[in-house]
Amino acid sequence: MATDQNKFQAIISHCKEYGFVFQSSEIYDGLSAVYDYGQNGAQLKKNIRDYWWKSMTQMHDNIVGIDAAIFMHPTTWKASGHVDGFSDPMIDNKDSKKRYRVDHLIEAHAETLDAAAGEELIAKMNALLAADDLAGLKALIEAYKIKCAVSGTVNWTDVRQFNLMFSTQLGSVTDEASEIYLRPETAQGIFVNFLNVQKTGRMKIPFGIAQIGKAFRNEIVARQFIFRMREFEQMEMQFFVRPGTQKEWFQYWKEERMKWHLSLGADPAKYKFHEHEKLAFYADAAEDIEFEFPIGFKEVEGIHSRTDHDLGRHQEFSKKKMQYFDTEINQNYIPYVIETSIGLDRMFLLTVCNAYEEEDLTKDGKEDSRVVMRFPAKLAPTKLAIFPLTKKDGLPEIAKELMDICKPHFHTFYEEKDAIGKRYRRQDAIGTPFCVTIDHQTKEDNTVTIRYRDSMEQERIPLDKVKELVLNKINE
Ligand code: GAP
């Protein structure tokens, strides 16, 4: 359970200082587990979102994208099982009145034990969670004398299940009939549109429907920055297959999704698959892709074989046939589904953690250092910074002309203040892969100095080659 809390804290501070992530409504002391993305964060998040969307839809002939509403008919959530079953076991401390998610309380205690004892405690907890043994979980908390961090006492209530869905009222009449939910996953928007898309798109099985959008969960113990939020974004894809072929497709999507992650250049040793200890009753396989954050290996994405459960339940509740006629085998059936589900915010956190580096540049006894965000060029919020060496002699004009040429193709940034070294460091801190300096030599021979973020090397290239060079790198 080796973690690096200091590094994680440094990343959180860096995200705030450089306009990536802010606490929501910070001037009012913030809102717990809700965050806003700043100028650099919003662009980075958009680039991740676009990269996923392109690789899922444009690069797969048989996957189309939709954008369903956040509000859905309340029966959706009865059919999906969320009204009855979307809950976490919680426990309250009677003295502090603080509520804990049982797994988080026990995990935090396990981290205070030595490695073997910690693993033993987690194994016991997993067995009890898998058996839905709430009394057993309370007994475990008591046996280990786990204390509330606020009151310091072991005075606990029983363990109970709490539903994680947010509800609100539709219309002005506050009766139960108008109660609706903020969707806790985007997947159901895909299932209820299965027939619409299949028919209007004349889709043939196997095919997929992808969607990106907000989801909301009333996470009781929301911790660890944007890792667990109450309002977050999911990028999900449901892949509809012929019953009996789901195992092959599950394997296919596991490999395909891992390839996607590795295409972004992280060390493969930082990724692993984690098989679910407890399968949802309708699933016949489920694995998570985990990444090694500074706070340990954690889930980023789930790949789930959901059988025909969701479409079957919507057929039952809506009385509409959710069937597909397979002309190859002359049969009608409810398709089976393989789901890939990744949190956009979690992928953002992964990208930031993987990119962040405090680099020691001390040379010949002269102390120096920098913080550099080594984002893959295709994800970097700004691709190119353009600096005139001085504010005069016509250099800003040349710089702005270059900016006008590049702007329609990728994000550029212009700056003429401070020494060039300082300007480079500011761009390193937000992960800009290329900086170009316009100097007096530019006026003579139409060349510029390009400086590469990662190696800090500089070379002279023709001014009219800058756009092409950057475009090639971001399309790699
Ligand atoms: N449709 C399946 C589904 O929602 P999930 O494992 O509950 O499955 C999928 O969620 C992904 O959504 C997770 O792997 C994670 O990346 C992201 N996610 C879930 N809850 C989250 C939260 N509270 N904050 C941020 N991301 C979350």
Automatic annotation (TrEMBL):
Coiled coil: none annotated. ATP binds at residues 217-219, 227-232, 299-300, 343-346. Its EC number is 6.1.1.14. Signal peptide: none annotated. Gene3D superfamilies: 3.30.40.230, Anticodon-binding domain (3.40.50.800), Bira Bifunctional Protein, Domain 2 (3.30.930.10). Substrate binds at residues 101, 185, 232-236, 339-343. Keywords: Aminoacyl-tRNA synthetase, ATP-binding, Cytoplasm, Ligase, Nucleotide-binding, Protein biosynthesis. Homodimer. Catalyzes the attachment of glycine to tRNA(Gly). This is Glycine--tRNA ligase. The lineage of its organism: Bacteria, Pseudomonadati, Bacteroidota, Chitinophagia, Chitinophagales. The gene is glyQS.
